[in-house]
Amino acid sequence: MQALTQQRFSTAVQHAGTTQLSTADREHVYQWILELASPETREHALLELSKKREVVADLAPMLWHSFGTIAALLQEIVNIYPMVNPPSLTAHQSNRVCNALALLQCVASHQETRSPFLQAQIPLFLYPFLHTTSKTRPFEYLRLTSLGVVGALVKTDDQEVITFLLSTEIIPLCLRIMEAGSELSKTVATFILQKILLDETGLSYICQTYERFSHVAMILGKMVIALAKEPSTRLLKHVVRCYLRLSDNPRAREALRQCLPEYLKDNTFANCLKDDTSTKRWLSQLMKNLQDVPAPTLGDQRGIPMPP
């Protein structure tokens, strides 16, 4: 059995190509991947491989093509579902599953493995973690790492990614976190929404009905109010970019003229943005887009209706 496993792994390594690591380091990586198959050695292997994901260029193909590895990572995820509801996740359990999630993020980021990763619908295994609301550190770490996997997908600007995400519940999940998560989780969730909006399909999807648009606009508005009290430049940057992209849709633009928060129209965030030229430029462009825009025709009922 061990010889057969080694043979399968050697084939996977050849498929993945070479890395810039020394021979000794590569042997360690190969051994840790083999050790993922055994529950007795998996925890240490997860820890070591998660440390190496930034320096091993072909780690994702090695993980994907090696026998039983993705199944082992999914087993780590499924094993903690009972601790999610009711919430009883410990710090140790959270750290362990987050190491597995870090390896899945590696797979999600790589050009060769991203498409089969989506076709296998593996991101859906992470959605129960995004549903959690516990404020404890283990759950926050779990949500943030899960968001990191989705964030890695949208960073690639791949149409297949957007198509997949729009077929799932990722937008309402991100909106929930944008409303009630920690600052860092809010930032990643808003970044994901931003990347979806920047895609033409994503913008059309969100602006297709008043319900979708109003939900997004309501959450963004709440975030602006909260940011006026507790400013965060990095979070505000993504919020403004979302508003600017929404203003590219004619019917959304007309609706935003009625519901854009006043805090974005005055100098509330002037000090927060004094060193952020790109966000100031986006905000200026948003204000310009919302000035003197002709109303869309009332005959088109497919998109956002005219506000009363």
Automatic annotation (TrEMBL):
The keyword Repressor applies. GO terms for biological process: mRNA catabolic process; regulation of translation; regulatory ncRNA-mediated gene silencing. Its main location: cytoplasm. Gene3D superfamilies: Leucine-rich Repeat Variant. The keyword Transferase does not apply. Transmembrane segments: none annotated. It comes from the Eukaryota. It is found in: Cytoplasm, P-body; Nucleus. Keywords: Activator, Cytoplasm, Nucleus, Repressor, RNA-mediated gene silencing, Transcription, Transcription regulation, Translation regulation. InterPro entries: ARM-like (IPR011989), ARM-type_fold (IPR016024), CNOT9 (IPR007216). Belongs to the CNOT9 family. This is CCR4-NOT transcription complex subunit 9. The gene is RQCD1.
